[in-house]
Amino acid sequence: MKIEALTLPEVLLITPARHGDARGFFSESWNQKTLQNAGVNLPVFVQDNHSMSHKVGILRGLHYQSPPFAQGKLVRCGRGCLFDVAVDVRTGSPTYGKWVGAELSYENGRQLWVPPGFLHGFVTRTPDTEIIYKCTAHYDRESDGGVLWNSLGIDWGIDNPILSEKDEKLPEFANWASPFQFGAV
Ligand SMILES: Cc1cn([C@H]2C[C@H](O)[C@@H](COP(=O)(O)OP(=O)(O)O[C@H]3O[C@@H](C)C(=O)[C@@H](O)[C@H]3O)O2)c(=O)[nH]c1=O
Fold this sequence. Notes:
Order of helices and strands: EEEEHEEEEEEEEEEHE
Strand content: 35-45%
Organism: Paracoccus amoyensis
Pathway: Carbohydrate biosynthesis; dTDP-L-rhamnose biosynthesis
Protein name: dTDP-4-dehydrorhamnose 3,5-epimerase
Strand order of the largest sheet: 1-2-11-7-13-5
Bound molecules: dtdp-4-keto-L-rhamnose
Shape: globular
GO molecular function, one term: dTDP-4-dehydrorhamnose 3,5-epimerase activity
Subunit structure: Homodimer.
Number of strands: 15
């Protein structure tokens, strides 16, 4: 199990070991001790999400839930390949408004830990791409929010992604008030 801090140090790239044999492989996709050992406040995951996107260039994001329903997410790719992004939106954070991204694929087995107080989004790089993520808070429709995908200077590697109607109408980052405070989430 390899754990790397990225340019936003609270966002972790986790690569679980794969034990290969003639049948295929075995991997511990989640082990409570690993994030604890990496210094993350021990998350309690209460919901697992799984979505599939048919086409290349489908972008879901950038999403969050407001406190007290803020979610940390441990994200991995179950099939295909995607580019996963986290943005620090904790007011008062030294890295406020900065983003980091990582390619997650079935092949590389990598996971991204996106803490509470960060926007999350991804774009698919293969057809029929599946994403699976563990969440530290339940879904709460009233707390659901987002920021427009192209208002933060993120290099998604694509100019015209396919968005949901909801995501097309999200506010630009400059016109949005963050509900998160540095040190409070
Ligand atoms: C997120 C979510 C959605 N839903 C429902 C609401 C709606 O009818 C349908 C699709 O919802 P959405 O369009 O919001 O799905 P999607 O655009 O895939 O939203 C997700 O995007 C990624 C980037 C995240 O980080 C997630 O937290 C979540 O916001 O599923 C749930 O029942 N539970 C959930 O936890």
